[in-house]
């Protein structure tokens, strides 16, 4: 297809199988070295996420996940190991995938299994602090160990619109957006914002500051802001969310169509979100996830004519270009989700397909595993070759 970049992640447990091992697993290190070498041979720039919803299971069962501060040191060991090993092979790094999801998907994002009667708010936000400190330490190590390396944060983005111009709805939307921007506020600016400190005060929560945490956060801010974008969301002050929207909830939006799994299709929302993030931080942006999950059915010729995916990507890429060319947003790049059909993280389904390459497997794992090009394959190949200029 001519990919210029490939976003992937390094599984912590492939390098340190238990998470607290003294020595790394050489077989795991060699595996990724082969992957990066293959990328380089094909002219592909690896964009590597350090932690993509994975914590070695022993760190969950024996340590309690990210609520335990020991994980900060263990993650630093992991980060130091991979930076040192791949310093000459990988220039672009991300710390934690969709870091803001850890408050709503606590096991997946933070390795937390709650106990009966546990103070969940305290546990979640203790874990949040530990992850933010671990992220800052990783930034420090990257800058020390990777010559010319760039490292960013990663947000599950898509702004919340107010349902109406009722000030109550507008305030509710502001509050909801802040719940997610709090993570990048710390990672980009180096300190907790005042609205978070006031919320913690109201909740009676004390940030579990380590000896040098404040200095580490302040001195090790990210180089760029990366994010996923699938949909915007809507907040109505007096109503609970009714639609799933990439692990988060939304009130209805009568102005937008829905894809089969309940996300709003909102290409203009991508431009709005890009501007919102860039206005907030004035840091380069990197869109590292965007795509359409759909049921792809082969026709009589055993071919997937996914014109709906082409239309979705064309509209979103045009909105991205408008944000750059019309609004002046500084954008490093764009990687779609994803090149090949795989199991959806959000639903555990194979039938929720994103790829340009069809994989013959169903939700139960049955099928030949045969891979075939969809119509979108050649279309996106042309997009890459023209660096996004030809979207026809």
UniProtKB/TrEMBL annotation:
Gene Ontology terms, MF aspect: beta-glucosidase activity
Domain of life: Bacteria
Transmembrane segments: none
SUPFAM superfamilies: (Trans)glycosidases (SSF51445)
Keyword Transmembrane helix: no
Gene3D superfamilies: Glycosidases
One Gene Ontology biological process: carbohydrate catabolic process
Active-site residues, record numbering mapped to chain: 289 (nucleophile)
Keywords: Glycosidase, Hydrolase
Entry similarity comment: Belongs to the glycosyl hydrolase 1 family.
PANTHER family in the record: 6-PHOSPHO-BETA-GLUCOSIDASE ASCB-RELATED, GLYCOSYL HYDROLASE
Name of this chain's protein: Glycosyl hydrolase, family 1
């Amino acid at each position: 297809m001519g990919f210029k970049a490939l976003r992937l992640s390094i599984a912590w447990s492939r390098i340190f199988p238990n998470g607290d091992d003294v020595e790394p697993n050489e077989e795991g290190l060699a595996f990724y070295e082969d992957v990066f070498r293959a990328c380089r041979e094909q002219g592909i720039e690896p964009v590597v996420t350090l932690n993509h919803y994975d914590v070695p299971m022993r760190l969950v069962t024996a340590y309690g996940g990210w609520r335990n501060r020991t994980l900060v040191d263990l993650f630093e060991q992991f980060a130091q190991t991979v930076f040192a090993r791949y310093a000459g092979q990988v220039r672009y790094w991300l710390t934690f995938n969709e870091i803001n999801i850890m408050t709503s998907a606590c096991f997946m994002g933070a390795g937390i299994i709650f106990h009966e009667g546990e103070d969940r708010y305290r546990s979640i936000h203790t874990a949040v602090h530990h992850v933010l400190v671990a992220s800052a330490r990783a930034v420090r190590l990257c800058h020390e160990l990777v010559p010319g390396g760039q490292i960013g944060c990663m947000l599950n983005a898509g702004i919340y619109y107010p349902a109406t111009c009722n000030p109550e709805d507008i305030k509710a939307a502001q509050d909801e957006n802040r719940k997610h921007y709090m993570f990048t506020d710390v990672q980009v600016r180096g300190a907790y914002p005042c609205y978070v400190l006031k919320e913690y005060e109201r909740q009676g929560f004390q940030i579990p500051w380590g000896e040098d945490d404040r200095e580490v956060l302040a001195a090790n801010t990210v180089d760029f802001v990366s994010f996923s974008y699938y949909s915007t969301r809507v907040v109505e002050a007096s109503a609970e969310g009714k639609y799933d929207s990439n692990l988060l909830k939304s009130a209805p939006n009568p102005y937008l169509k829905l894809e089969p799994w309940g996300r709003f299709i909102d290409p203009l929302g991508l431009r709005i979100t890009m501007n919102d993030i860039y206005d907030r931080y004035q840091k380069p942006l990197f869109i590292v996830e965007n795509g359409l999950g759909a049921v792809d059915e082969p026709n009589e010729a055993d071919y997937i004519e996914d014109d709906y995916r082409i239309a979705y990507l064309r509209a979103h890429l045009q909105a991205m270009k408008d944000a750059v060319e019309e609004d002046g947003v500084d954008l490093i790049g764009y990687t779609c989700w994803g090149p090949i059909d795989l199991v959806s993280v959000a639903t555990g389904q194979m039938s929720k397909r994103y790829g340009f390459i069809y994989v013959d497997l169903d939700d139960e794992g049955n099928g030949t595993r045969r891979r075939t090009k969809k119509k979108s394959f050649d279309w996106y190949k042309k997009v890459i070759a023209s660096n996004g200029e030809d979207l026809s």
